[in-house]
Design a protein that fits this description.
The protein is built from nine helices and nine strands. By secondary structure, it is α/β, with parallel strands linked by helices. The strands form two sheets. Strands 5-4-1-8-6-9-7 form a seven-stranded parallel β-sheet. A two-stranded antiparallel ribbon has the order 2-3. It is globular. Bound molecules: S-adenosylmethionine (SAM).
């Protein structure tokens, strides 16, 4: 068995960020939470063993909406009807910001934050050279919890990217670095988690 497969990955969590993200023009905006993103990323996070899945939005009304959805699946008829979905959503929570997610994980000193993007962005954030490197780092002796951050809209704002410890390489398709690679955040999350935490 390879070292990789023998070593358990570090604890990790997933965050879906709705602010600060950028719009088509590059302006920093707040995107709306979409139900399918919440369900899909909760299922992927649960599948790959995440400790937690955070939905972040600064908008109180949106947090109330997400809390209502999560509460319905935890205690309502839908959770009775689809227990596996209830199990996935049980790991989800909605918080105002990434800082709140980090606080939930024990504070910044105990968390290493990796972000994701379809194209290289941000000046200061270290780009991990490959998913093989990310996979190895996810199985290192580093005691910090990994927090893997996904964006919405047209992607994570550069300021947030630069506040992260590292950026995972963009996922490229058949066209390579110059080709089309604008994945939905749902697809990007599943591919990323499988590459880093999946068992082939
Ligand atoms: N061009 C934007 C981007 O990725 O920066 C598209 C945003 S996409 C609708 C929302 C999120 O999905 C991104 O913030 C990123 O987390 C993820 N994502 C989309 N395509 C990706 C790719 N090819 N590689 C890595 N992450 C990707």
């Amino acid at each position: 068995m390879s070292i990789d497969a023998a070593r358990r990955p570090r604890k990790f969590a997933v965050a879906l960020v709705h602010h600060p993200v950028v719009d088509r023009g590059g302006d920093v905006v707040t995107s709306a939470v979409t139900n399918i993103d919440v369900h899909d990323l909760a299922r992927s996070s649960r599948t790959y063993g995440a400790e937690a899945f955070f939905i972040t939005t600064p908008i109180e009304a949106q947090r109330q909406l997400v809390s209502a959805i999560l509460g319905h699946w935890a205690h309502g008829s839908s959770g009775e009807r689809i227990p596996s979905r209830r199990e996935a959503l049980a790991h989800a929570s909605v918080v105002p910001s990434i800082d709140d997610a980090v606080a939930s994980l024990g504070g910044r000193d105990g968390v290493e934050i990796w972000c994701t993007a379809a194209k290289p962005t941000g000046e200061r954030c270290v780009l991990l050279p490959s998913y093989a490197d990310a996979r190895a780092k996810a199985r290192s002796d580093d005691a910090r919890t990994l927090l893997i951050v996904f964006g919405t809209s047209w992607g994570l704002a550069p300021a947030l990217v630069d506040a992260c410890d590292a950026r995972l390489p963009p996922i490229y398709g058949a066209g390579g670095p110059g080709g089309y690679n604008h994945l939905s955040v749902r697809a990007a999350c599943a591919i990323t988690l499988d590459r880093v935490f999946g068992i082939a």
